[in-house]
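[step 3/7] fold_predict: job queued, chain A
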Amino acid sequence: MRWVRNLQQVCWNNTSKVYGTEIGPRNWLYGMFDLDGRNESKNAAMSHWRGFKHHVPNEPNLTRDFLVKLWESDWKEKEILRKRRKSVRRYSGRRKMSSGEHVFDQPPVSQAITGYLAPTSPEEAKIAPLLARSNLLITRDIEWANLVFGFEQENRYAIVDVCYPNAPVGFIREQSNVLIRQFLRTRRPFVAYITDALGNELFRVRRPFWWITSSIYAEVDGKEIGVVHQRWHLWRRIYDLYLGNKQFAVVENPGFWNWTFTLKDIDGNVLAQIDRDWRGFGFEIFTDAGQYVIRFGSSDPSSKTGLAQKVEDLEVVRPLTLSERAVTVALAVSLDNDYFSRHGGWGLPLFVATE
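[step 4/7] structure written:
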């Protein structure tokens, strides 16, 4: 719209010498009306523009086609700005958000990125905005096709920092083959992409097909940073967590109705905790929409920032590094598929699950 102001300035400065007559701004305004007071602005404007092309010296040749193109360009620019403002208002006014919808603002981190959380590699620097937090709430979306027809869908999750509950800090979305999902169900291979609130991929978790025990890998930019291996037991739920080739934690859950999975080091000290929340009778019986709280905790209260200073954290012997936290998120995804995705097939008898 800068060209509009420039064009107006040109018109104002060149109102003289039209058809050889000196016409100042005031005289030109008076010329819009005849002696009877009737408006002659239309004729005046037409005469002015017709003379503008031929009688303004040292100015570009402004043809009618050129002005039409300028008008079209300005109109398109206004339409783009209008749609952009409309989309911003729509997203800012929406309270309920699902994992398929992205917000424009990434909530700030709730832990200082220093000490154990200081990035030691480009991969850790990439995942820091999502994982430099004391607590993460991961909620799985309701799969309506699975609920009504027993059709297995791709899993989707929203990640929320409990210090900033009004906006998600990230999303998890599975990608897998539609036919393999129907036949293999919870044993299917898949890749899940973890993104920030803006939809930018931070890292991914890869889970291959399994028969007896499952494994899930955490990767950043195609580089494997850690893995979680399930250990077979008749009733206990045991997982070994590795960073590279070195084990840094183990989970030994007693099984049955115990939904707390505590990460401990070799000495039995607490490092982090994953709790599977009870969402109500209807949610638990008819859907797979589970909710998980990852408590990374804090060993140093001074490391908290913002609203996190008012939240009581889990006491841990040491904070997990950013890479270890990415492996912990992978464990939460694996737990959801291993033990809490058993409701597929409540719909048509054709799709009844065997597990």
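[step 5/7] annotate
The mean pLDDT is 78.
The radius of gyration is 32 Å.
exit 0
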